Amino acid sequence: MDPLSAPTLDEARSLVQAARKPLLFTGAGVSAESGVPTFRDRDGLWARFDPAQLATPDGFHRDPTQVWEWYRLRRRAVRRCVPNAAHRAVARFLFARPDACLVTQNVDGLHQRALQEEGEKGDGKWGDADPAARVFPLHGELMGDRCPGCGSREPASPERDSLPTLPSCPGCGELLRPDVVWFGEPLPETILDAAMEKAERADLCVVVGTSALVHPAAGIPLMTLRAGGKVIEVNTEVTVLTTQCHIHLRGPASLLVPPLLSCGDADAHLGG
Ligand code: BV8
Ligand code: ZN
What ligand 1 atom has the least distance to the C-alpha of 52? Predict the structure, then answer.
């Protein structure tokens, strides 16, 4: 069945329009059509590398060169990617709905780029809406370097990423690391606390493109459910969450998210 003609899409759109506190929750699948490899799909990052070995403090301590090689490869790939129709629809939704927020597991920065581009494109039509404060990146940012020594942070630079040497902190000389949360590391407390509070207050959680396997992030939709809210899932596959969702929309994010989140007919035809 054509996912756009499924009755469930209309039902899901009504839930989105009626929601007072909608929370959007995304994973790597929302960026798949931008060309960013997911983690667990067949051609995903796990297929060729073992993030359980590389995206960990032990892995970094054991072989910082290999870990940096992996992150620099991912950065080169993401720099060639652009936000897709799903990212743009999420951005427009956040501008149009001051009661909405986004919790993302993604570190690729494509949601943030879509917000910036839609803000500029909006050319003032969004008023003084500043949705950036309603975006909660749980796992950090791929395009950021952090110093474990003095805590300094700076944006990743293609120049520094192309050096044959590993990056060291200009302030204290310590070996820098990518500013992401590795397996076995705690998530940033203020961001996680704020995201969980939003999940408990949300009356609707729209889950897009996640296998819902990584905790504590995967607990976000469950907190909305436990608080009496509803969950809509957009995914090309079923997941461990599917049976608990009120509506499961089967199909790609860039096809389903624009009509699902459109804030008006014109917007839906924008196609994201
Ligand atoms: C912590 C940054 C404690 C790094 C990432 C056993 C049980 C439960 C938990 C654990 C356990 N053993 C260990 C743990 C904890 C562990 C965990 O959950 N492990 C899992 C694997 C079992 N969690 C942690 O370690 C966390 N920390 O618990 O700390 C603690 C507390 C205090 C003090 C000390 C310690 C930290 C987890 C964060 C790890 N970092 N990323 C980097 O990127 O390099 S997680 C990584 O996975 C990414 O962020 C990614 O977003 C995330 C989740 O994956 P998904 O986004 O869901 O991606 P995936 O490929 O899996 O799925 C894609 C989906 O999209 C699929 O469903 C697919 O069908 C769909 N899709 C594909 N294409 C499309 C699509 N959908 C729509 N449209 C499409 N076109
Ligand atoms: Zn330093």
Answer: 21
Residue 7 parent element (H or E): helix 7-18
pTM above 0.85, yes or no: yes
**Sequential pLDDT tens for the chain (272 residues):** 677 767 799 999 999 999 999 999 999 999 999 999 777 777 666 667 788 789 999 999 999 999 999 999 899 999 999 999 999 999 999 999 999 999 999 999 999 999 999 998 887 788 777 899 999 999 999 999 999 999 999 999 999 999 999 999 999 999 999 999 999 999 999 999 999 999 999 999 999 999 999 999 999 999 999 999 999 999 999 999 999 999 999 999 999 999 999 976 445 444 44
DSSP state, residue 39: S
* 34 in contact with ligand 1, CB cutoff 6 A: no
How far apart are the C-alpha atoms of 22 and 41, rounded to whole Å?
28
From the CB of 8, is ligand 1 less than 6 Å away? no
14 Cα–ligand 2 center, Å: 50
CA pair distance 3, 239, nearest whole angstrom: 17
Reading the block at residue 218, the tokens are 């995967």
Please tell me the total number of residues recorded for the chain in this structure.
272
31 lines ligand 1 (CB under 6 A): no
